[in-house]
Design brief:
Blueprint (H helix, E strand, L loop, with lengths): L12 H10 L2 H13 L3 H5 L6 E2 L4 E2 L9 E2 L2 E2 L4 H11 L8 H12 L4 H8 L4 H7 L4 H16 L1
Antiparallel strand pairs: 1-2, 3-4
Helix pairs in contact: 1-2, 1-4, 2-5, 5-6
């Protein structure tokens, strides 16, 4: 049984584009990182350049990381500008943490092995992975098409 706070909201690529146009650059950068990595807000806010490996395209996260800054101050939240951006972009029922669901679902759809996704997101159990993985109508159509192709062959 799923918990009350379980969510299945995934941000589409189209919605991402609309949202990024409505956010200030610092918030757009944070949302982009979350969309493409599945990192938690706190992990992003604590990220520093010494944890970014541009050559290999990866981040190294440790509990000691210091805050990302905007105008010289640590970024602790983008909730206000995210709320305004979502409203202006016409996106409903969306929270920052839904970007984690989006990453897991997109990675799975891209064919990334679930054990690799779990390693990237830090999910230690299959039940947590399953909670973040959203199976949608497009997945159902793909499954039926694959089965049809298999049975026809």
């Amino acid at each position: 049984m799923r918990k009350k706070n379980a969510r299945d909201r995934v941000l589409s690529k189209e919605e991402l584009g609309k949202l990024l146009k409505e956010l200030p650059q610092h918030a757009a950068d944070i949302v982009t990182v979350a969309y493409y990595t599945g990192m938690r807000a706190g992990e992003i806010f604590n990220l520093t350049w010494d944890r970014v490996n541009m050559k290999d395209g990866c981040f190294t996260l440790t509990p000691k990381d210091t805050k990302i800054t905007y105008r010289g101050n640590p970024v602790r939240s983008i909730k206000s500008c995210l709320t305004r951006g979502l409203e202006r972009a016409g996106i409903e029922d969306f929270r920052f943490h839904d970007l984690r669901h989006t990453f897991v679902s997109n990675a799975r759809k891209a064919g990334v092995d679930r054990t690799v996704i779990m390693k990237l997101t830090g999910h230690k159990t299959l039940s947590i992975f399953t909670r973040y993985n959203t199976v949608d109508q497009a997945d159902a159509r793909e499954a039926v098409n694959r089965l049809d192709d298999f049975l026809a062959g």
